TrEMBL record:
InterPro entries: 6-hairpin_glycosidase_sf, 6hp_glycosidase-like_sf, Bac_rhamnosid6H. The lineage of its organism: Bacteria, Pseudomonadati, Bacteroidota, Bacteroidia, Bacteroidales. Residues 255-289 form a coiled coil. This is Alpha-L-rhamnosidase six-hairpin glycosidase domain-containing protein. The keyword Transcription regulation does not apply. Keywords: Coiled coil. One of its GO terms (biological process) is carbohydrate metabolic process. Residues 351-511 form the Alpha-L-rhamnosidase six-hairpin glycosidase domain.
Amino acid sequence: MNRIIGILMLGALISGCTDKTSAPAPWSACFNGLSNHGRTADKIYVTSGKKAQIIGLQDASFPDLGGHVAGEMGGIWTGSFKLADGYWMKVADVISNEDTLLHAREMIVYPHQNEFDFGQVLSGLNISSTQFASDVEPGVVISYTIENTTNNERSVNLGFLLNTDMSPVWFSEENGIRNTADKVEWDKDKEIFLVKDSLNSWHMAWGCDHKIACYEIGIEHVHTKGLVTPTGMYTTLLLQPKQKETVRYVITSSIRSFDEAVDNYQILLKNADKELDDKKQSIETLLSTSEIEIPNKDIENAYYWTLINNRWLEMDVDTIGYYLSAGAVEYPWLFGCDNSYSLQGLLRTGNFDLVKSTLRLLNKVSERTNGNGRIIHEMSSNGFVGNKGNTQETAHYIVALWKAFEWTGDKKLLEDIYPNVKKGITWLTETMDTNKNLFPEGYGIMEVKGLNAELIDVAVYTQQALAVASNMAALLGEDSLAEEYAQKAEMLKQRINTEFWDEKAVSYCDFYGSKSDALKTAKGAIEQARMTGGEESEVIASYYVNLINEINRNYKTDVTKGWFTNKNWVINTPMECKIAPFERAQEALETIYLHNCGKYGPYLSAVEKKHMMTIATGVQAVAEANYGRIDRAIDYLCKIAETLGVNMPGAINEMMPDYGCPFQAWTVYGLATTIVSGCFGIEPYAYLKEFTIVPQFPQGWDRMSLKRLRIGDNYVSFSIEKNKDTYTLIYTSQNEGWKGTLKLPEMRGKTITMNGKQQLVEGDTILLNSRKSTIIIPLDK
């Protein structure tokens, strides 16, 4: 398709309509639920709320899961501690004494809750359950529906068994937090169980909305695998023929007292239906912001479920705050790197409050931990920092902060964090640049043994940080500092394009350094490869052995240059950040596509040619879109979309196609950025109440729309449709006083129809100053 026409089409699209129609929203089908059809019973699921999570397998069992706290990452979690290893339902026929533990034959995932179908249990009893985790109280609600399908009265005994295991999150024992025995007691007046860790201030209350016939307290224990006696409460139901009845169980917690845990229990029990409805409505609001409708329904569906995945990763921990966690189930805590990507996706999908809260929390924790502008790598939900920060994270955070300002227009956010931005720039350009060559040293995104050098991603994100810090300084009246940052940004850009480019490989290099740095990196890669063992690791080790021989043979001791050693995916960052010259970018992108990619996108390391991640493929899509290669960008998004639901319905795995975390926050970066800023070409300037549109229209698409895109305090919509002879673009703005600039570089001298009037496009842009504009663009004959 002609790029000029594509741009025009997109412009229209970008003007999507806000008019209400009878057609269902494109995301509404998500609430119909997605079934695993019994195929992934042995895979992990997560039922998540801002205050709690349930993690188990899709057959409704709770085996030992996870690695950070070995075998303990499953169960019921809330905030900074675990409540239980899991729960089970035992069903017995009172007359025949026949009994069984429920085992799900099917799981259905909804945005707001999960459902298990147990099918026919015993004889003539159909049982299903639903569960949701609260956004308001630190607890969960589990409801069982029992249907008597026979023509006879049935007396059924339900035994709800909970394996209490109040224990801390990852990185606790190293900081003096020990797991001790749980003390369980029965409150006969309230008919609830009360549980407390013997040493720590962790309290739990749980009970049922039906009369309890009897109860059983499990053995007090410090969790020992396989030697746990669960606590149980038993309820008897008398079911008439064809009768259906629902029994609800509520589990809540407190970090302060039993009284608070009981209050939370009573509130959640009383308000469960309302809370679930509120949760559903809040997700509907989330999905209706930046609502897309495109011909590629696979990408469209993946886009909406990725927003839902990120909703599942929102955390509101009493002792810490409200933030976006990195991924379930191994990384449910705060990350600098992950959020520097994820938050940029969230900005494009309108979740401003979460973005700003997460940025503020990262700044607060980093200042408390480091005090020098350095941004932390990760903090567990108990408040302990496990890694004070890799070098690229400080630069990347500064970039994400500026993006937040561009989208939200929140100057106070910028003013509050700017002092630490200046400290961060000093840390990057002075403390971490010991040889004063503008390339900061230290680990970047790829935590590869021995790769502690002057890395491509660190250099690129530092260049970007200097550029946006210059903008911040100018906005806040520090003109001389703005000029200093701008000059350094330009010099660093030039040096990256000179020193990191490998003409022979037609690629940017992994790092810049000396011959000894290259040898150290290769030796570290050999050591890391051989740690895994096996034939495959020896193949990788052999590559690096040959590389060492080549380096020793071809380079003198004192040589300093860019080295293409690991072929890590981050060599795409110059294109992601648009600092690569156009022709060079075309070559580099093609090199990655032809030589460094697998079925699902760029390999994490093209040496190993094994692992692929959504973040690598997503960044590659962003890079392709930046240089007019929108069809290739869409192809990469298709690779991500293809993995939707491979393990958990509605979820996209961290590692493609089917391993790692069931879902990871930063997947939203590639999808949202490529669609909103690539296809629709939106660049916001919320502080000025302005935005630009430079659209690209993928081959084969005849329509697309973007509705209720949030920029500052405004919502704008765009739609575009291809007819026989024209493209029709419609733009609407909720608020007055906003200026949109539609950039049409190939439309100079063309005549268009705007709001019923013909006009000549004299320059390269069309101004959209009214609240609604309809633009008709003739197709070239």
